[in-house]
Design brief:
Layout: E1 4-6, E2 15-17, H1 32-44
């Protein structure tokens, strides 16, 4: 498990976090579900079964 210590963050500050991160690609700005699915695959190697 990888934990990161976040300092001076705009959302989480001065704490240990252990989560995936990511951002919207330009072609995903109107489709948040597409962004979530891509980030799950890229960051965690997971594909949800829905």
């Amino acid at each position: 498990m990888l934990l990161l210590f976040r300092q001076h963050g705009s959302v989480v500050s001065d704490t240990w976090v252990g989560s995936a991160g990511g951002h919207f690609e330009e072609n995903e700005l109107n489709t948040p579900k597409a962004c979530v699915l891509r980030e799950l695959k890229e960051e965690l190697g997971m594909l949800p079964i829905w």
